[in-house]
Design goal:
248 residues; three-stranded antiparallel β-sheet
Length: 248
């Protein structure tokens, strides 16, 4: 997966649509280049929201408190659970586990499920369940203090600074680069440019959609699909005999 800086992407697109290649993309005052950068931002944000791309997955951990409210999930100004430089778009289901107790933290509960659980449950149970409300991560029953919980989430920020120290929603510097495949960004930018100019973009849009679907299929690694009920990811007890010609 190619990840090129925004200046390279805009320079290539400028050449394709007959514009002079700019020396700067984000610092340009040329209305055409400004539009290309704006469309690139739109493309990256839209593409990031279409799929759980592995390049946008973040592993997060925190220490529990003995309370229902475990704290703010994300905030740019106050103490929060998630990485402050990578705000979450959503928590990936079934990834939250308490590594201290070795139990899953199940959820997310719906508002109805949460209120119903608290209304009818007399024995809280061995493990917590969670929900998000008002930006806070809630656990029921409340865990003990200082237990280690891990989960994975999809970040809202699909753009990185050149040195990887900052993450962004939009390109602000020429050496910023998307965390997604630049090839898809260019294909998306091509049809969006034509659409903005009132040109026929149907063929380019179809090419882009096919490329996106192909990338979704091949993104990361996939478990094999088997029809015999067996799984290559599970190890069953038994005696392992190496392959050989035992008749000789």
């Amino acid at each position: 997966m190619a990840q090129e800086p925004i200046l390279t992407i805009v320079q290539e697109m400028a050449g394709r649509v007959g514009l002079n290649k700019p020396g700067s993309a984000t610092g340009s005052t040329d209305p055409q280049i400004i539009q290309l950068v704006s469309l690139a931002n739109e493309e990256v944000q839209e593409l990031a929201g279409r799929f759980d791309w592995q390049s946008l997955i973040v592993e997060q951990s925190f220490m529990t408190v003995n309370a229902e409210d475990q704290g703010v999930l994300w905030s740019p100004t106050t103490t929060c659970i998630c990485n402050v430089t990578k705000p979450p778009r959503k928590i990936i289901n079934e990834t939250m586990f308490n590594r201290t107790t070795h139990f899953p933290v199940t959820g997310p509960l719906t508002p109805t499920g949460w209120q119903g659980l608290k209304a009818v449950t007399t024995v809280a149970g061995f493990y917590s369940r969670y929900r998000l409300r008002g930006g806070h991560l809630l656990f029921y029953p409340a865990p003990a203090d200082s237990q280690s919980v891990y989960f994975e989430y999809i970040t809202e920020y699909p753009i990185s600074s050149a040195d990887g120290s900052a993450f962004k929603l939009s390109f602000t510097k020429d050496d910023d680069f998307p965390l997604l495949d630049s090839r898809l960004i260019k294909l998306g930018l091509k049809w969006r440019w034509k659409s903005a100019k009132g040109l026929d973009y149907e063929e380019d849009f179809n090419t882009y959609e096919r490329a996106v679907l192909d990338s979704m299929t091949s993104d990361g690694t996939k478990q094999p699909a088997r029809l015999d009920g067996h799984s290559t990811t599970k190890v069953h007890p038994g005696i392992w005999v190496p392959r050989s010609n035992w008749m000789q």
